[in-house]
Amino acid sequence: MYNAKAYSAVSATSPLASDTIARRDPTEHDVQIEILFCGICHSDVHSVRNEWSDFMSTTYPIVPGHEIVGRVTQVGSAVTKYKPGDLAGIGCMVDSDGTCPHCKAGFEQFCQNVIFTYNSPDKHKTAPVTYGGYSDSVVVDERFVLRVPDNLDLAGVAPLLCAGITTYSPLRHWGVTKGKKVGVVGLGGLGHMGVKFARAFGAHVVVFTTSPDKKEGALRLGADEVVVSRNADEMQQNAGSFDFILDTVSANHDINAYLNLLRLDGNITLVGAPEKPLEGRGIQPDHGPPQSLRL
Fold this sequence. Notes:
Layout: E1 2-8, E2 17-23, E3 30-38, H1 42-48, E4 68-75, E5 87-90, E6 93-95, H2 101-104, E7 115-116, E8 137-141, E9 146-147, H3 154-157, H4 163-173, E10 181-185, H5 189-200, E11 204-209, H6 215-221, E12 225-228, H7 232-237, E13 242-247, H8 256-259, E14 262-270, E15 292-294
Helix pairs in contact: 4-5
C-alpha cells in the first residue's frame, strides 16, 4: 500500500478537508493513474451529505469523485491495454463480479455486485470502502479504465465520465436522430450536455426550465426553443408533441406535466436522482394511448 493525498468528509455536516488515504499497490490487472482532473458531480454532494440514505447510506470518511481523468503511471504485469504515459479516464464503476449475465453481456452497470468508484465495499481490503477521485492518484482494474485521446482538453473530458454518458446513453438508446423533437428538462450539469448531444444528433431541441434567465444560455448551447415550465400556456402548446424527453432535474417536481407532452410511443427518461421518490411516478398522461416512462 501507499499513501495518497485526498479531500474527504468525516460526517454529513462537515466540509471537505485535506486528508491522507491508503491506496493499494497495483496487482497484475491494475492500472495506477495520477489524477489530473476530477469533475464535481451533484451525486458527490448527495453522497457527502448522506441525502440518499434511504437506499445508499454513506460510510465515513468519504472521498467522492467519479469523473476522473489522469495519466497512467504504473501497470500490472498482466495489463495489455495501457502503458505508463497514457491518458486515461475512470467513471462511476471500478469493479464488478465479471461472471453474471450482465457482466458477460457488457452491462456491468447492472451487476448485482458492482463496485462504485467511491463508497462501495473495497474487496481488496485497502480501506473499508472505495475512495474516489478527489485525490492525487487511484488504482483501478484495467477493465474499468477508459482511453482518453491526447488531443482533447482534459478538464473538459472529466465531466463526460458521468454527466456525459448519463445523457448520451438514453439519447442513443431511444433513437434520437434528425427529425425527432426532444425535450431537455433542466439546464444544469446534465441538462447542458443533453442539449449539446441532442443538437449534434440532429434533433429539434426544446429546453424546459423554471428560470427565464437561462433562455440565452440554452439557445447558445444549441436549443431551438426554450419553454418556461411554470407558464401553463407554453406547456399546453407543446402537449402531445415530443418523441423523447430527457428529465435531468434532481429535485422534486411534477413528472405528470412532462408526461402530457409525449406523443404516441414517446418516451421520457429520468436521469436526475432526487432525495425522495417523485410523486406521480408511473401515472399515465391524460391524453391518448399510454406513453413510455423509463426511470
